[in-house]
Amino acid sequence: MPPSSEERLKLAHAGDEHTDMGPCTPPSRWMRDTAPFAGMALLGLIAAGSPAAVWVRPEWLASAALTLLAGALLLVRPVRTRVPFAAHVAGAAYVVAVALLRDASAGSGGGLGMLVLLPVIACALYGRPRHLPVAIAGTAAVYVGPILLIGGDDYPMTKLRGASFMVLIAGLIGTTILRLVSELREREREREALLERLDRLAHTDGLTGLPNRRAWSDELRRALSAAARTGERVHVAMLDLDDFKAINDSHGHLAGDRLLRELAAAWQPVVRGSDALARLGGDEFAVLLPGCSDEEAEEIAERLREAAPPGHTVSAGIARWDGHEHADDLLERADAALYAAKAAGRDRVSLALG
């Protein structure tokens, strides 16, 4: 049976690492996500350095060094992993850098303190919910901390109300973004679940729960492609109930449906884990038998025939792939072997080994 969309997604992400900062992202997407934040941080440095005399102040130089450190921690990383510790250190370094920028601009900062919202927005967009309060606390440290700890003309108590409002605004922005992102992720999960269900329905026989013709055909093509590379033997068995039309005519289609469900349930424990049992339509079933000898394929078909519900018989035809024929031709030979079994008296297995 072909893998579901969920299984294919897991295979596609095999080897990817997940961390506290969420799923890892490709380098191109990572650069795209971080570029706006890096641009704003650099603009803040440039704005704080006007007039140019500020550039030689220790606070500005320290802020520039910390900003570059934060950028390096986020950008210089293994291609397929994201180190949570480095991201946390980068955030802390940038908060200190913004605080130093404000101090370099004599406390008022000329609005540069707003840059401390960048970690809040980044956490809301790309982090976990538990990261957001830490980022908001960073905003409080930049705005409220200097007023309480330093004070003086640069950080008078009269600014405490405005600083408190800034912390509240950071919380409002962060929680709103986080809520919207969470809703989008939930919608994405629902969409993926729906696609997975539709994929499963498209490849499942509604009556028996077995793979349907489409799923079995896909599996057959994959098996033949693999066998062409490895030289492994592949057999196909076609089976159907003897006199199924008479059963439907005598007992009704509901009775025929019940019989098909019983047959499918009885056969599933018989086939191997590597085999693929499917209902192709009506009372016609097929089994893909990779990696077995002619004798083993015949033995499995005989066990399937013997597992038929009491009072009913099954005929089967087996064809062995010749190594180059098309899948449809292989099925045609197996079907011909099935009709040969019926012509020979039914309730038997016929082989067309090629």
What's the gyration radius in Å?
34 Å
Query: For the largest beta sheet, what order do the strands appear in spatially?
Result: 4-5-3-6-7
User: Poorly predicted ranges (pLDDT <50, ≥5 residues)?
Assistant: 1-24, 78-83
The amount of helix comes to 55-70%
Overall pLDDT level = 82
What is the count of β-strands? 7
Computed structural class: alpha+beta
The tally of structural domains comes to 2
Number of helices: 13
Q: What is the rounded distance between the termini?
A: 26 Å
Strand content: 5-15%
Shape: elongated
Largest sheet: 5 strands, mixed
Order of helices and strands: HEEHHHHHHHHEHHEEHEHE
Keywords, separated by commas or semicolons:
disordered N terminus, five-stranded mixed β-sheet, 354 residues, two-stranded antiparallel sheet, Alpha-Beta Plaits
What features would you describe in this structure?
This protein has 354 residues and is an alpha+beta fold. It has two domains: 5-196, no CATH class; 213-352, Alpha-Beta Plaits (2-Layer Sandwich). 60% of the residues lie in helices and 10% in strands. It has 13 helices and seven strands. It has helices at 5-12, 27-48, 58-75, 84-104, 117-126, 131-143, 145-149, 160-202, 213-230, 244-251, 253-267, 294-306, 327-343; strands spanning 18-19, 22-23, 234-241, 276-281, 284-290, 314-320, 349-352. A hairpin with a 2-residue loop joins strand 1 (18-19) and strand 2 (22-23). The chain is elongated. The two termini are 26 Å apart. The model is unreliable at 1-24 and 78-83 (pLDDT under 50).
